[in-house]
Write a structure and sequence with these properties.
Radius of gyration of chain B: 18 Å
Helix content of chain A: 55-70%
Strand order of the largest sheet of chain A: 1-2
CATH class of chain B: Alpha Beta
CATH topology of chain B: Beta Polymerase, domain 2
CATH superfamily of chain B: NADH:ubiquinone oxidoreductase Nqo5 subunit
Mean pLDDT of chain A: 80
Number of strands of chain B: 8
Strand order of the largest sheet of chain B: 1-4-3-2
Number of domains of chain A: 1
CATH architecture of chain B: 2-Layer Sandwich
Shape of chain A: globular
Chains: A mainly alpha, B alpha/beta, C alpha+beta, D alpha+beta
Distance between the termini of chain B: 38 Å
Shape of chain B: elongated
Oligomer: heterotetramer
Strand content of chain A: under 5%
Order of helices and strands of chain B: HEHEEEEHEEE
Structural class of chain B: alpha/beta
Radius of gyration of chain A: 21 Å
Number of helices of chain A: 15
Order of helices and strands of chain A: HHHHHHHHHHHHEEHHH
Strand content of chain B: 15-25%
Largest sheet of chain B: 4 strands, mixed
Number of strands of chain A: 2
Helix content of chain B: 25-40%
Number of domains of chain B: 1
Chain lengths: 372, 175, 207, 400
């Protein structure tokens, strides 16, 4: 459980063995008396969200959905339509920024802002590999769950401020949904915290480290962990308003839900926030249950695959890949399933997921005390 | 009627319609006209149109008739008779399977026909449409408004003497 | 209670079935159906994989019978006006001038060998209005009016959607009209025959 | 007369019931809100406007407003001659033009005295059954979209595309065919049509099965549709429902059997009614199932009629078309089974002119939609969407 398992004898920074070596070094960087390094630390998740949302989020989703539906998807801008999202962003930038006359201007403007900030703030505790984390809080997980829920405020502000009945419906539905699904999600995550005995994100990763790769992940160490894993995954779909729980933006019922009235860049920001929180929940689930930035490859005799694929850069690679995998599953579900109804959604939350989460909680506690 | 397959049920249709008409004639006497043995659409006319709703209800509920299904209700203009009218194609679903058409006529200006919207719900919107297109009133209709044209449209478009209005809310009406 | 668990069970199995189907399509995306036309043998050869085409560059060919843009072969047109009368939406406008006797040779014959008796200075088709029903081409006695396979003919201006097929310019038409007047004056009313052509071979076009 | 009033109401009442219905506690109800659904709304399938009185998510009442797509079909029909009406008929139910043409031609042919060649009848049946599949595919696909599943929609459209290609190959147009003419059809089948059509049947069966697995059997889909929008059989008849809607309520009534027009009596097919094992009879799921089953039946019909169709060299499908269509004076009500129900034409001819004196189109969607107000009572907004989707309206036909 020590950091010594990381690659030894490397360059002091690039291949640092110390936990959080890059972010610590950066935070001490001052230029002209300004905490320049901190700005970089803050900028890295921002750049990451933007880049990932541009490439994998929007373009990937469009391509994945297209392939699942026997279509080609975007093909015109660039080879295989790779630059399609850039073109879309350019289009959105040029669009007129309409604030309708009867809207509550303050709420209308601040809504997407809160949404984005909520999604973005959670990235502060997200470890991009062993060497980089925005802030290694000892309550990192708790913070992440809490701050993602800030989105509710943004959605409500956007929906109410739009002064549109559809937007209002969308916002109310969304708030009810997110607040409800916090409970099974939190309990499921608590199961993970119980297995780890910590709330610090980096500690989670360290605890799941080992030469047998994926066998050290909580999901494979504890058979009961599958239950909270699935519960959290389902709840995270609801929290990020993804299908089959996309009833707040149900396009066939509520036109576009809480962002019906948004145009141009504000619309783009809402989208960015959605993709941001999609990655956030995917990263949380992979940290808590699937070893975060640890390599899933085991050492098999002379093939020390695990050692070869461990390191600061590899760590970043693994966590991003795991996040992307869960995002793929989210997209996959979205392009397969119909949408639930409002009351069925609540039924699923309160009558299925929450009891099962409690059961899982108890079972895990029993396992931790008596079996382990 | 060239098609042989269609010929056989057609002639049977007229016979069945005749039996139906006799039942109605027994009950209502001279309120209904003679049966027109049109091979494609045997029909009779309701001469006393105040009784149309009673006839309709009788046709729906009498066990010998059971015209449960109204296929169509069309408004018609009869300019040479100075009348407007409706033609109802009725049918009995199930083992009886007979069908007949009923005509009801009213005056061209301010004509009133009793509504059968409560007898057959189909008639609800069809009567609204007939009112929209021809302008006859349906007394007792639950919600007699225009249905296809805008509320404030002038005139009744399917009347033979209809003149299209020139502008509608400042928009020129083509032709 | 058993219903509760049965619901959960069937939800999971049906969702997994559905996901299996979409995943199979996802992996089938390396194949493409291609742009085989319906009249080609291999149309149903590739049943999996992507089916869409990048339209302007790739397109499924229109079958020969394709009934799209209306075209008039004016050299064969005898100006009988049947198409304009048959058209349910009146998108064809025809003006004809009777050819004078000495002009008949100039006026020429159709490819079917029928003598043309009319100049057709105006033969306008408003293809923006045309609903490609094919009624006009069915009544055309000389089969000079027909729908082509060109299905994509958008224009930026609506005026460009009116296709002019007339075989005389305005000046020429004026000259012909004058000539006809003179001929009429010269030979007073030699039994005017308003529509000679259409009755000769009606319904030929429909076969 | 008091009895009259009572009797008038006696058979007509929809009692919304079902496992999945939500019971709303009235003490938490608040102010009513008027919600305008449409005319531009993704799930109203065109330009239908529903004025919903809502209490939270619950629709207390939804009043449909029509006429946004009113194109004066009946007036047009009085202006143009009989063959000219057919293209306008095409444009009424633009998803099932062949079937609409068929209905209109049946009506006019009843007035005229024409012998229709046997091969023409087969051609008509085959193309209209193809079009029925295409139309049901749209119905099922858009229903999937209404319920939030996008992929089945595109699968449906992928398969519909093949049908459109087949129909374009034989008729020259993709959507608005003007193919079935009064007394005949426009063209004979092209060379090789039979083989391609059979290939399509072979291709489509597994795809329909896949669609069934992906959509119809999906638990979420079942939960969204089962027990929603219940319509008892007697009320459905009283509303004049027809086609898949009426059969969804368990009434075995199909004009192809009842009227036995064209060559349908010679063909072996069954009238699809739900058996109540998967759905509550009369709910949205039943209607969906009927459509899915009818596609299978249409495939059977196509196979049979392709086999039975008499082959004739140099066959002229227009031979029986009268030179001048001027029916004798009279009136007729002709109808055919459209994918959406009974499409009937009441035609009145004065025997003098070549255009009808009166041509009333009894459109199936118009009648089916008229039950919307009653069906929507006390439903949730998502259920309202589900109900509209299951009615499968084509606004072109509703408004004519």
């Amino acid at each position: 459980m020590s950091t010594g398992a990381l690659l030894p004898n490397s360059f002091p920074l690039v291949m640092s063995t110390n936990l959080n070596a890059w972010s610590d070094a950066l935070s001490e960087l001052h230029l002209f008396g300004m905490p320049f390094g901190l700005i970089i630390i803050a900028a890295i998740p921002l750049v990451f969200i933007a880049l990932y949302a541009l490439t994998y989020g929007v373009y990937g989703e469009r391509k994945i959905s297209a392939f699942m539906q026997d279509r080609l998807g975007p093909m015109e801008v660039g080879k295989w339509g790779i630059l399609q999202t850039l073109a879309d962003i350019l289009k959105l930038l040029q669009k007129e920024d309409i604030v309708n006359k009867s809207a509550d201007k303050f709420l209308f403007v601040i809504g997407p802002g809160i949404l984005f900030v909520g999604a973005f703030l959670a990235f502060a505790v997200l470890p991009f590999g062993p060497a980089f984390i925005g802030a290694d809080l000892n309550v990192g997980l708790f913070y992440a769950i809490g701050i993602v829920a800030l989105e509710v405020v943004g959605i409500l502000a956007a929906g109410w401020g739009s002064n549109n009945k559809w937007a209002l419906y969308g916002a109310i539905r969304s708030v009810a949904q997110i607040v409800s699904y916090e409970i099974p999600a939190a309990i499921a995550i608590l199961c993970g915290a119980m297995m780890a005995g910590t709330l610090s994100m980096q500690q989670f990763n360290l605890l799941q480290q080992g030469e047998y790769g994926f066998l050290h992940f909580f999901l494979f160490q504890n058979p009961i962990a599958w239950l909270p894993f699935i519960i959290y995954f389902i709840a995270s779909l609801a929290e990020t308003n993804r299908a089959p729980f996309d009833i707040p933006e149900a396009e066939s019922e509520l036109v576009a839900g809480y962002f019906t009235e948004y145009t141009g860049m504000k619309f783009a920001v809402i989208f960015l926030a959605e993709y941001g929180s999609m990655f956030m929940v995917s990263a949380i689930i992979s940290i808590v249950f699937l070893g975060g930035w640890n390599s899933p490859l085991p050492n098999i005799g002379p093939l020390s695959l695990n050692d070869w694929t461990t390191g600061p850069v590899w760590g970043a690679f693994w966590i991003v890949m795991k996040g992307f995998f869960f995002i793929f599953v989210q997209m996959w579900l979205r392009w397969t399933l119909p949408r639930l109804r409002v009351d069925q959604l609540m039924h699923l939350c309160w009558k299925v997921l929450t009891p099962f989460a409690f059961v899982a909680f108890v079972l895990i506690a029993v396992w931790e005390i008596y079996v382990k | 009627m060239g098609d042989t397959q269609e010929n056989i049920p057609q002639s049977g249709e007229v016979i069945a319609a005749k039996a139906v008409w006799q039942v109605i004639n027994e009950k209502f006497g001279d309120a209904v006209s003679e049966l027109d043995e049109n091979p494609f659409m045997p029909f009779f006319e309701v001469l006393k149109r105040e009784q149309w709703r009673d006839i309709a209800l009788f046709m729906r509920d009498n066990p010998k008739l059971r015209f449960t299904y109204m296929a169509c209700l069309s408004g018609v203009d009869y300019p040479e008779e100075r009348k407007l009218g409706i033609v109802c194609n009725l049918e009995s679903l199930g083992e009886l399977g007979h069908r007949i058409a009923v005509k009801v006529k009213c005056d061209r200006e301010g004509g009133i026909i009793p509504s059968v919207a409560k007898v057959w719900k189909t008639a609800d919107w069809h009567e609204r449409e007939a009112y929209d297109m021809y302008g006859m009133e349906f007394s007792g209709h639950p919600d007699l408004r225009r249905i296809l044209c805008p509320e404030d449209w002038e005139g009744y478009p399917l009347r033979k003497d209809y003149q299209v209005q020139e502008t509608y809310h400042g928009i020129k009406v083509p032709e | 209670m058993s219903g509760y668990f049965r619901d959960i069970g069937s939800s999971i199995t049906t969702i997994l079935t559905g996901m299996g189907i979409t995943l199979r399509h996802f992996f089938n995306a390396v194949k493409r159906k291609g742009d085989a036309g319906i009249d080609e043998e291999n149309y149903f050869n590739q049943v999996d994989g992507l089916v869409t085409l990048q339209y302007p560059r790739e397109a499924i060919p229109t079958p020969k019978i394709g009934r799209y843009r209306l075209y008039n072969e004016i050299d064969d047109c005898i100006g009988c006006n049947q198409c304009a009368r048959a058209c349910p939406i009146d998108c064809i406008t025809i003006e004809t001038i009777k050819a004078t006797k000495d002009d008949l040779a100039v006026c020429g014959k159709t490819s079917g060998g029928q003598q043309k008796r009319f100049w057709v200075p105006v033969f306008d088709i408003d293809v923006a209005q045309c609903m490609t029903c094919g009624i006009c081409s069915a009544v055309c006695p000389t089969e000079c009016l027909y729908h082509t396979q060109v299905s994509d003919f958008s224009e930026f201006s609506r005026e460009n959607m009116i296709y002019h097929f007339g075989n005389l310019t305005k000046l020429e038409a004026e000259a012909k009209r004058k000539k006809l007047e003179e001929e009429k004056k010269a030979a007073p009313a030699p039994k005017p025959k308003p529509k000679p052509a259409p009755k000769t071979e009606p319904e030929k076009g429909s076969q | 007369m008091q009895e009259l009033g009572k009797a008038e109401h006696s058979s007509v009442r929809v009692t919304p019931k079902g496992d999945n219905r939500v019971i709303i506690e009235k003490d938490i109800s608040s102010e009513e809100m008027i919600l305008n659904m449409g005319p531009q709304h993704p799930s109203t399938h065109g330009v239908l406007r529903l004025e919903c009185k809502t209490d939270g998510e619950v629709v207390i009442e939804a009043e449909p407003y029509l006429g946004y797509l009113h194109r004066c079909f009946e007036k047009h029909a009085e202006m143009v001659d009989y063959p000219g009406v057919v293209p306008f008929v095409d444009r009424m139910d633009y998803l099932a033009s062949m079937n609409s043409d068929f209905a209109f031609c049946i009506a006019v042919e009843k007035l005229l005295d024409v012998e229709i060649p046997r091969r023409v009848e087969f051609i008509r049946v085959i193309v209209s059954e193809f079009n029925r599949i295409a139309s049901h595919l749209v119905a099922i696909g858009t229903y999937a979209i209404d319920l939030g599943a996008f992929t089945p929609f595109l699968f449906c459209f992928r398969d519909r595309e093949h049908i459109l290609n087949l129909l374009e190959w034989t008729s020259g147009a993709r959507m608005l065919y003007n193919y079935i003419l009064i007394g005949g059809v426009a063209y004979d089948f092209p060379e090789g049509f039979k083989e391609r059509a059979l290939e399509f049947v072979k291709y489509f069966r597994p795809k329909a099965l896949e669609l069934q697995k992906l959509l119809t059997e999906n638990e979420i889909f079942v939960k969204r549709t089962k027990g929603i929008g219940m319509m008892p059989a007697d009320v459905a008849i009283n509303y004049g429902w027809s086609g898949p809607m009426l059969r969804g309520s368990g009434v075995e009534w199909d004009l192809r059997k009842e009227d036995a027009y064209s060559i349908y009596p010679e063909l072996d097919f069954k009238v699809c009614v739900p058996d109540g094992r998967f759905s509550d009879i009369g709910d949205c799921l039943s209607r969906h199932l009927v459509r899915a089953m009818e596609m299978e039946e249409s495939l059977n019909i196509i196979e049979q009629s392709l086999e039975m169709m008499p082959e004739e060299d140099g066959f002229d499908p227009r031979a029986a078309i009268p030179k001048r269509i001027r029916p004798k004076a009279g009136e007729v009500y002709g109808r055919a089974e459209n994918p959406r129900g009974e499409l009937g034409f009441y035609i009145q001819s004065d025997g003098k002119s070549t255009s009808p004196l009166r041509c009333k189109a009894r459109s199936s969607c118009f009648v089916n939609l008229s039950a919307m107000k009653e069906l929507s009572l006390g439903q949730l907004i998502p259920d309202l969407v589900s109900i509209i989707g299951s009615i499968d309206i084509v606004l072109g036909e509703v408004d004519r």
